[in-house]
Amino acid sequence: MDEVENVIIVGSGPAGLTSSIYCARGNLRPLCIEGDPSKVDGPGGQLMMTTDVENYPGFPEGVQGPDLMQRFRAQAERFGTRFKVGMISAIETDSRPFKLHLRETADAPVSEILQAHAVILATGASARLLGLESESRLMGHGVTTCATCDGAFFRDVPVAVIGGGDSAVEEANFLTRFASKVYVIHRRDKLRASAIMVDRALANPKIEIKWNRTVREFVGGERFLSHMMLDGTHEDEGVSEKLDVTGAFVAIGHIPNTRFLGERFEQAADGYLKVEAGGSRTTVEGIFGAGDVHDSHYRQAITAAGAGCKAALDCSRWLEAQGIGD
Ligand code: NAP
Fold first, then answer.
1. C-alpha 184 – ligand 1 centre gap (Å)
2. 170 CB within 6 A, ligand 1
3. pTM for this one?
4. Which residue lies with its CA nearest to atom 30 of ligand 1?
5. Could you report the per-residue pLDDT of 50-79, keeping only the tens digit for each?
6. Which domains can be identified in the chain, with CATH numbers?
7. Contact 290, 16 (CB under 8 A)
């Protein structure tokens, strides 16, 4: 507990690892808290659940999400970043150095109190859920949020993806490698996903889009899904439809991981961390934010990486002004 880190970086997605690279190259010997190792996708953020990343510059043939994150991590390590697995469940901000409560997994008790002169928050965002009782009951038993993790379990059977954004359409395309049929359940008559992804989905004979539909219920036994009940939205009012699927992939966006932050951190109504316009300073001096934890607009790996760079530079300059570091 006595040792005080120059900077602790919380999160190991593109924002956290880019911050780590920059802080390490600035001789700050950063400590990066990687996340919960017990999660199905492990630490490394949302890209650990992504297959082909085709829009990250420098990879003209595309790159697999986990491979990209492994490269980020190796680069951070090369310059001296130290890593610790676990979750930060609270940050004491009343005095400096800050005290960070570390748990080995999200459900474990606090195992260590870490101290740091500065903190970079890069905790990203997590999958949003529909909030149905049947969704939580069958989660992991036919209902899932990760096509990359679970897609191969659904060979030659029909599945559904819920959502109309890039995640949903990407997952639908990916799932056609395994499933006999992929339904996309979308609550409107137009997809939000980018044109190239939409064209690819519409041209795929295995994909059928169920427009103007919401999920009323996931139905099955205790540990398996047999079908879903759908309702028509106002365009198709009164419609009730049974869809036979044994897998359902919920891909309706994300919620920022800010719940562990105290009230000194200003947040937007939807929970996104507020940082200064164009920069990374939060409302707590000495604590900076980067990536999807504060960005509800762009939410790309490249913008998160850029934000991680900015936070590291802001943090280094702030530490220097405090006379901390080399
Ligand atoms: P998103 O763009 O926010 O899309 C969420 C989708 O879920 C929307 O179609 C939304 O419907 C629907 N939805 C939200 N709440 C719902 C509810 N309660 N019931 C039913 N449907 C609901 O989220 P995302 O697809 O996860 O993408 C997030 C960001 O990451 C985006 O900026 C995206 O471009 C990026 N991304 C990029 C790639 C890639 O380039 N390879 C892959 C994945 C994600 P409405 O359309 O009606 O709002």
1. 13
2. yes
3. 0.79
4. 299
5. 777 888 999 999 999 899 999 999 999 999
6. 4-126+254-321 (3.50.50.60), 129-250 (3.50.50.60)
7. yes
